[in-house]
Structures are given as structure tokens and as C-alpha cells.
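pls design
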């Protein structure tokens, strides 16, 4: 009689779990993904580097163990991951981050270690959030880092992390070199892509007459691919409710109207997008002036109603420079640069939500500096909440009333000084900020060489990250 060990039972349990998450549909190819040409090109480089490893090595192309794909919900992150797996002719396992514990992560990668496949971790931000100050790093983050370090992507899995959140909120250890190295940002579809999406969404729905798809593409600005599919089905439901067997233009127009994506919102959406572009360009220009283009990863503005965007400093720079000397104050200024750009160059339209995030980030950096004794204290209670803002009631967990008052005044003083310094740096370069913002609006994302070229084309002086 064979003895069944605890390890065998655990492995069997994990295998049953993975079987339920496994997809193997080689029919999904790149053509199934509408738009996102830059993302498909980057992923296809990985595909070819794995298929033709001998040539890739001659060209000096490193193995990629993991990819981070970010973008608003409904933009096709999971579909893109499935197309990537289809191009590799590998099975794909789609795992929900909410279901992953440190033990499950370890066992999953142990079971799949010698299986050429693609592991997709959806909503990875749920388990890999950045920690601040003295907050301990999540055990789940540690387990995922260990698992990624042990991968051999030629004979084992390639990992894709998907998130609709800001990649800057992720733990830097997850996205450093050798883990989720490649970063891809998806934006919402432009008009031409929306037209293709409408045609695909309606091709299996019985219809009559001219549906006015060109007008639908105009009126659905801000919709993602998932929104368009849902709206097409809603239009079919309206036809059914009317006792019709076919869909007509009136049903489609009513469905779009009900979802609230109408032309009268386009001007409002454009104002938000422009403000967001100026915000992110402000971050990028200040970083360029202080550190140079090589310190930046990318600048992205998503074409969304919320106007989401991000500017990413190279992870190696953030990790290496810490809080010593004058550098932490530079990082505070970099955090406030988006807010300053909006205040200086976009006053009539007010501030975006990103400006409050800038204040929160800057405050968090100042509190961490205080913990390191850089504000003059030799001892300070550890902050339990980093996103406080310049509000004295936010510091109730910091020792005596006198210490709380002193800390609040110190934080406010540092914020005011950093804000003034950042404004003095940025205001002379308004034309550069606006030119970069226009490029980002046009491209959606600028990264790597394209970002460096765009910044240098403005003619502003370039700093150096050798600081």
C-alpha cells in the first residue's frame, strides 16, 4: 500500500485548483486584440526571443521572466495576455490575486516550474502594494519575488501581472529587473479603434438598415472595448423589449445615451485629459531638469473619463538613492511637480484628483524623512498612515500634543518650501511642459527612447542622475 504524504496531498490540491484556472485556446491571436499596437510589438519581441533563443542571445536580448500590463478596466488586458499565450502556443493560467496566499503562490510556481506556460495574475496590485516607512513588506510580495526569481522562462512559465491601478503603487521589488521587467500601459481606444470594436460587437446581432456606426464611434468617446460590447448587448435588449427581431439605429443610439457616453461630454473629457497631460508632463520635465531623461521610465495619460495618468521614475534610481542628503527633498519636489504644473498652466479648469495624490505622496516622503532623523528629531513614533496631507488632525498618533504640533508644522513648512522651489523650477519652462503634454495626448504613452527624444526636443537643459 502506497503511503500518501502531506506534500502529495497539497500538490494534488494545487493541481486541482490550477486545472480550474487553465485555458488553452490557440485560436486567440494578435488580431483578436483591437489596437494596442505598441503592446503587441513589445510582447511579440518576448515571443520571438523565447522561440529563437540562439539568435536572441547573439543580439544580446535578455530573457524576460515577467511583464506588467496596466490600463483602465475593460481595455483588454486579459485578452492581450491570452493572445500572448496563443502566440507562444502555451497554456495560460489566469489567477485572481484575491485568491492568492503566500503558500498558494509558492505551490503554484513549484507545480508549474517545468511547464512552459503563461501565468496571469489579475489585479496584482491587491497583493503587491508598496509599503511605506516602517511598514513590513507583505509576505505575499516576498513569496511572489522568490517565485519569480526561480523561473526559467524557456522551460517554465512567463508571468504577466495585470492591474488597473497606478504601477507606482506597486512594491518596487516586484517590478525591478529580473521580475516583472517589461512594463506596458494600455489606453482606451481612439475613434478608429472604437469603430472596429463596434463592428465586431454587432457582427453577431441581427440588425436592419444603417446603424450609423461612424456616429456611434464619435459618441462613444471614453468607452473601452468592454463598454462597447456591453452597450451593443443593451441595444439588443432594447430591441427585444420592443418586440423586434432585429436591431436598428434608434436602439443603438438609445443604448449609448443610457450609458452616458454622449457627445456633450467630449469637451469635458478633453479638458480632464489635457489637465492630466499637463500634470504628468510637469512631473517629467522637473525630473528631466534634475536627473535627465535616463532617470525616467515612461509618461502615460489614459484616454479616460477620469483622465488617469502616471509618470514613472526608473526603479533603480528610486531604490538606490534613498533618503540621504538633499535627495529626499528633490523627491518631494518631484512628487509635487504635477500639482504645480496644473496650478501654473491650467488654472481656469481647476485641479485633477492627481493633485491631491501629489500632496499625499509628498507628505509621506516627508514623514519617512522625519523617521530617518532628517527633520531634526532624534526619535519619532513611526507613522501608522502615510497619506495624511497638511492637516494637524492627521497626526494624533504621534506622541505628545507638543510633538504632534511640531511635526505638523514641520511637514507644512517642508511642503511649502518644496512647492515654492518646484514652482520656481517649472515656471520658466511652460512651453516645454505644454509641448510634452501635447505629445503625450497624441501618443497616449511615451517611454524609453521616444520619451528621451521628446524631452530633448524641447531644448531645456538636461540634468544628470549621477547625484
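designed seq:
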Amino acid at each position: 500500500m502506497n503511503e500518501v504524504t502531506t506534500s502529495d496531498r497539497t500538490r494534488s490540491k494545487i493541481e486541482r485548483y490550477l486545472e480550474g484556472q487553465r485555458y488553452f485556446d490557440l485560436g486567440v491571436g494578435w488580431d483578436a486584440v483591437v489596437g494596442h499596437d505598441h503592446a503587441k510589438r513589445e510582447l511579440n519581441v518576448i515571443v520571438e526571443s523565447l522561440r529563437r533563443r540562439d539568435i536572441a542571445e547573439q543580439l544580446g536580448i535578455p530573457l524576460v521572466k515577467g511583464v506588467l500590463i496596466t490600463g483602465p478596466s475593460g481595455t483588454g488586458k486579459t485578452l492581450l495576455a491570452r493572445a500572448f499565450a496563443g502566440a507562444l502556443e502555451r497554456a495560460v493560467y489566469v489567477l485572481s490575486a484575491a485568491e492568492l496566499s503566500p503558500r498558494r503562490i509558492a505551490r503554484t510556481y513549484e507545480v508549474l516550474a517545468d511547464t512552459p506556460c503563461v501565468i496571469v495574475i489579475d489585479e496584482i496590485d491587491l497583493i503587491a502594494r508598496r509599503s511605506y516607512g516602517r511598514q513590513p513588506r507583505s509576505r505575499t510580495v516576498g513569496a511572489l519575488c522568490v517565485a519569480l526569481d526561480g523561473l526559467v522562462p524557456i522551460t517554465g512559465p512567463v508571468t504577466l501581472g495585470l492591474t488597473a491601478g497606478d504601477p507606482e503603487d506597486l512594491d518596487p521589488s516586484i517590478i525591478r529587473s529580473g521580475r516583472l521587467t517589461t512594463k506596458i500601459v494600455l489606453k482606451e481606444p481612439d475613434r478608429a479603434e472604437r469603430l472596429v470594436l463596434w463592428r465586431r460587437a454587432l457582427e453577431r446581432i441581427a440588425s436592419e438598415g444603417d446603424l450609423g456606426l461612424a456616429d456611434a464611434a464619435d459618441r462613444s468617446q471614453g468607452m473601452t472595448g468592454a463598454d462597447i460590447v456591453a452597450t451593443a448587448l443593451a441595444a439588443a435588449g432594447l430591441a427585444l423589449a420592443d418586440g423586434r427581431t432585429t436591431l436598428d439605429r434608434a436602439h443603438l443610439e438609445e443604448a449609448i445615451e443610457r450609458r452616458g457616453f454622449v457627445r456633450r461630454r467630449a469637451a469635458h473629457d478633453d479638458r480632464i485629459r489635457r489637465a492630466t497631460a499637463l500634470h504628468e508632463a510637469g512631473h517629467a520635465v522637473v525630473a528631466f531638469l534634475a536627473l535627465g531623461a535616463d532617470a525616467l521610465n515612461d509618461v502615460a495619460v489614459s484616454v479616460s473619463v477620469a483622465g488617469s495618468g502616471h509618470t514613472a521614475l526608473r526603479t533603480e534610481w528610486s531604490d538606490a538613492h534613498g533618503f540621504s542628503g538633499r535627495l529626499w527633498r528633490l523627491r518631494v519636489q518631484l512628487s509635487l511637480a504635477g500639482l504645480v504644473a496644473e496650478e501654473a498652466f491650467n488654472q481656469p479648469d481647476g485641479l485633477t484628483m492627481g493633485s491631491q495624490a501629489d500632496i499625499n505622496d509628498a507628505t509621506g516622503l516627508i514623514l519617512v524623512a522625519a523617521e530617518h532623523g532628517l527633520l531634526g528629531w532624534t526619535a519619532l513614533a513611526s507613522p501608522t498612515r502615510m497619506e495624511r496631507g497638511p492637516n494637524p488632525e492627521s497626526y494624533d498618533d504621534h506622541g505628545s500634543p507638543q510633538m504632534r504640533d511640531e511635526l505638523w508644522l514641520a511637514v507644512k513648512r517642508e511642503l511649502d518650501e518644496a512647492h515654492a522651489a518646484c514652482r520656481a523650477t517649472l515656471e520658466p519652462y511652460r512651453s516645454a511642459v505644454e509641448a510634452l503634454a501635447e505629445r503625450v495626448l497624441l501618443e497616449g504613452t511615451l517611454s524609453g527612447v521616444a520619451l528621451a527624444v521628446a524631452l530633448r526636443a524641447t531644448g531645456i537643459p538636461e540634468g544628470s542622475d549621477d547625484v
